[in-house]
């Protein structure tokens, strides 16, 4: 059985197998070594994620041997909706967000002690993009998410990683180091362009490698064509 | 637990999560309903596939409830290598190819009687492309695959589908209906361009729909954001 990596998060995870998406890129990267399992839920915040944890990661009799290699936990973009704007129903206060993230990490660590938990902060917000591409009716003409608010949730996520001893990708900071990140990395002020997806996949591959999970270290599923003897191909399949 | 669709095949399956790939597109299409599981093995023919069937689809105690919705079986491009050219070690005679495909289908049907088996024929071959992009040393300067040979394997695959009562995508015929298919659909005379991948994904989605497997018929994993009441979001998670 191939080992698994779960991608758990909101829409930025759910749509990660679209064109140029970071989830598909990860599955491609590990195409002979790991099953990348998509568990993205558009619009979800950490409060809702906590409600569904047991259903997303059901306990099974095979559970122990079925421990995934890693789980990416990528929430905060919806928690960071402002409480007095058009997407207020998705808002979660930053202190609760922090506590919820800790609870998600604890749940996963308790279920699978050896599994690596890779936290990912919400991306930065291009407020102009959010006004140009509203998801719902927004009569106030004020962005429902701001970059400053996303930054506070990103900081909280980094703190959870530090406090729980898990790796983190500070996407909010990382993305803003690129020129024109607002339009180059975000297609609607929040969701990722192919170039934005590149930032995520490069970081995910790097962090997993730091955790010992790389093409160099993971066993390949069945003989590679280069290891099959052209003179006696069936020999490769005898073990 | 989400149901699964396995993609079983050669390099055209293994690389199907690359940019614009049909596997990633299928995973994206079913992002909240189905886990698309990659089981592509570059260079493999049906003779080698038979050798590894039990390892690719291991029997487990949970096997009955774990029956996948569907398996795509996409072999033939390597079997169709000519027996007197530079990739002869991958060649499998067309009669054996046909028998091997029958054996693969029987194995899957015996293991999981309700699982849909979707056969896919090899794509057509652009011989000029094969000479421009050799995979191994080719001193003869004759293509190791020809379109005519691929056509014979495609016909055999269609016959297996008919004889076993399973759906099939006749990719060899379908692709050649497009103008400039040689360069538009094939990047090296054999493997798919993004446009070639589009032909495959459209056909796969259509055939699965014909088998009753579509977004309309499959249950969604957890409440969609549009079904969450903004006034009382947690209500959606009570069942």
TrEMBL record, chains A, B:
<dbReference type="Pfam" id="PF00657">
    <property type="entry name" value="Lipase_GDSL"/>
</dbReference>
<comment type="similarity">
    <text>Belongs to the 'GDSL' lipolytic enzyme family.</text>
</comment>
<dbReference type="InterPro" id="IPR045136">
    <property type="entry name" value="Iah1-like"/>
</dbReference>
<dbReference type="GO" id="GO:0016042">
    <property type="term" value="P:lipid catabolic process"/>
</dbReference>
<keyword id="KW-0443">Lipid metabolism</keyword>
<dbReference type="GO" id="GO:0016788">
    <property type="term" value="F:hydrolase activity, acting on ester bonds"/>
</dbReference>
<dbReference type="InterPro" id="IPR036514">
    <property type="entry name" value="SGNH_hydro_sf"/>
</dbReference>
<dbReference type="InterPro" id="IPR001087">
    <property type="entry name" value="GDSL"/>
</dbReference>
<keyword id="KW-0442">Lipid degradation</keyword>
<keyword id="KW-0378">Hydrolase</keyword>
<protein>
    <submittedName>
        <fullName>Uncharacterized protein</fullName>
    </submittedName>
</protein>
């Amino acid at each position: 059985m191939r080992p698994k990596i779960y991608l758990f998060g909101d829409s930025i995870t759910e749509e990660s197998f679209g064109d140029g998406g970071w989830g598909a890129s990860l599955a491609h990267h590990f195409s002979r070594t790991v099953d990348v399992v998509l568990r993205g839920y558009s619009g979800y915040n950490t409060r809702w994620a906590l409600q569904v944890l047991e259903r997303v990661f059901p306990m099974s009799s095979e559970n122990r041997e079925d421990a995934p290699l890693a789980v990416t936990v990528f929430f905060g973009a919806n928690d960071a909706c402002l409480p007095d704007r058009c997407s207020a129903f998705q808002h979660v206060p930053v202190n609760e967000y922090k506590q919820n993230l800790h609870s998600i990490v604890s749940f996963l660590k308790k279920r699978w002690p050896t599994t690596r938990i890779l936290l990912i902060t919400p991306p930065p917000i291009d407020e102009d993009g959010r006004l140009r591409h509203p998801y719902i009716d927004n009569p106030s003409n004020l962005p429902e998410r701001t970059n400053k608010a996303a930054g506070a949730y990103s900081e909280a996520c980094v703190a959870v990683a530090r406090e729980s001893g898990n790796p983190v990708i500070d996407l909010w900071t990382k993305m803003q180091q690129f020129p024109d990140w607002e339009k180059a990395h975000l297609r609607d002020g929040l969701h990722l362009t192919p170039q934005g997806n590149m930032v995520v996949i490069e970081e995910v591959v790097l962090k997993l490698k730091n955790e010992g999970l790389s093409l160099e270290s993971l066993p390949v599923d069945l003989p590679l064509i280069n290891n099959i003897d052209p003179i006696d191909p069936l020999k490769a399949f005898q073990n």
